[in-house]
Structure formats: structure tokens, C-alpha cells
Amino acid sequence: MSYSLKYEVKIKKLNEDILLNNSPYTCQTTLKGEQETFKYFAKYILKVNNMTDYLTKFNKKLRRKYKGSLVKVENIKSMEPNAKKYLNNLAKANLIKNVTWGWYWIPSSPKDFFDFLRQDKNFKVISVQTAASFWNYDFIHRDAYTIKVTNRSYGKAVEEFSKINSWSVKVEYIKPRLKIKYTKIKGLLIEDLEDNIIDCLKNWAFTDAFATVYENRKDIDFKKILKQTYWIRISRSRVRIKQALEYGCLKLNQALGKNLFPSRVIELNDQYIKREIDESIEKVIDLA
After folding, report:
1. Which of 55, 63, 128, 132 is most buried by its number of CB atoms within 10 A?
2. Low-confidence ranges of the chain (pLDDT < 70)
3. pTM for the complete prediction?
4. What residues make up the domain containing 8?
5. Claim to verify: residue 46 and residue 16 sit in the same structural domain
6. According to the 3-state scheme, what is the secondary structure of the chain?
């Protein structure tokens, strides 16, 4: 190895140590007594020290504002024009995590997926069965999660980050113009009650839906749901959600011996869906 190349390697290692705050040495003490080499690298060393100092400040600023959050290079450019370069340097030094193209994670210590969602600064709404567990007091516990996002790129970043942490997460992209209605519960954005019941029925999560209906019977706007779901069908079927809800409410009233839910006598032609709803009502009544 040539003389100059040997010291380039030494300076590079020194730069990494200083950035990670692992080195007790300064550039001056490292090159003490090597006057010619110091002159050769003086300008480079000054640049390295300035860069290291700036990266340290930039890292502190990131942590202060985005600790625990996924960040996109384009969004950080408002804070720092050279965001792409500096984020890449911090990732190389293992001070932040490169999750996927254009996205980084500013480290923290999330206890679980919900804790990560609380710390993350991006817009996302917990939905379907995962949201139902908040409305029906975790009637069916699952270690799989579903969220809705309005930024497709962010959704892909969440999926990649979830794989790294061994979380089972499904991300559903919703066009921004279709506004997601939500309620804030325990620091999390949860799909609105009525919309969540509709989503669960649409996705065949009948037990989650009717457990939510039962637990929130005094708060549900049934007229809103019935009007909204007149033409919406259960996925991969010809059964309207309105029909499924009315049939399920009828079965709940019959099982309880009380008219607690708005319903009407209705027959479902789809025997498979009918049987699935009957079984769901039995579970709700048994565990309620």
C-alpha cells in the first residue's frame, strides 16, 4: 500500500470513529510528528471535522423532531437541502435505519407495532379487524394488523419496516380524495365506528362486526350505515351489506329476546353467508 493511500485509509477510519463518538483522538494527535502528511491532508481533515460536526447536529435535530418515525428524503429537504446525502451518511454510520428507497427510520425503542404507530409522524388509520378490536374490547385477539394510508410510498415503507420487525401488517392504499373518517383513541387514529362495521362486513369479518355492533349498540348510527351500504356488497358475493346487517341484527334480537337493534324479517339467499353470520351471532352471544 502506498504512503498516501495508507493515510487515506487511516483518515477514513478516523472519520467514522469521530462520527460514532468512539474515538478519543483528534486529527492532530493522530498525525502528531508527521508534518508532511499533515500538510497533505490538512484541508481534507478540516473538511472532515466540519462535516462530522454538522452531521452530529443534523442527527440531533432529526431525533428531536422525528424520533421513532419513518422519514422521507423529500420531506427532510425542507429542513436540510442536502438531506439525501446526509441521511445516507448517517445510515452508513448506523445512526439511522435505511428502510427502503427514499425512506429512513429514526431509531427509538417501540414496544410493539402500536407503539411504533404512536411515534410515527405520518398519516395512517388503523382499520378493519384491527380497528374492531378497539371498538369491541379485543373480542377476537389477533397478532396481525391492518392500516389504511393515503401515501402509497409510505405504505411500502411501512410494509418493509414491518418485515424487519417481524410484524404481520397489511397496508391498504386509499386515494386522498376519499377521506378516511377516524377517531383518536389512546394516541392512535382508529377507523370510525360505522365505517369499521361496514369494512368488517365487506371483508367477511362477521364476528368482529357483530361484536362491535353489540358492544356499541347505544352509540351506532344505524340509519347512516343502512343508507351508506344500500348498494355495497360483501366482497365476492351478491349479498348487500345492508341485508347482512339487518339479518344479523334480527338474529341478535331473537337470541337476546329483546328488540335492541333495528331489524326486519329478511331471508338471505346465499346459504353460505347466512351460515357464517349465524355462527358469528352465536359466538357473540356466548362470549358477550
Report:
1. 132
2. 1-51
3. 0.81
4. 3-97
5. yes
6. CCHHHHHHHHHHHHHHHHHCCCCCCCHHHHCCCCHHHHHHHHHHHHHHHHHHHHHHHHHHHHHHHHCCCEEEHHHHCCCCCCHHHHHHHHHHCCCCEEEECCEEECCCCCCCHHHHHHHCCCCCEECHHHHHHHHCCCCCCCCEEEEEECCHHHHHHHHHHHHHCCCEEEEEECCCCCCCCEEEECCEEEECHHHHHHHHHHCCCHHHHHHHHHHCCCCCCHHHHHHHCCCCECCCCCCEHHHHHHHHHHHHHHHHCCCCCCCCCCCCCCHHHHHHHHHHHHHHHHHC
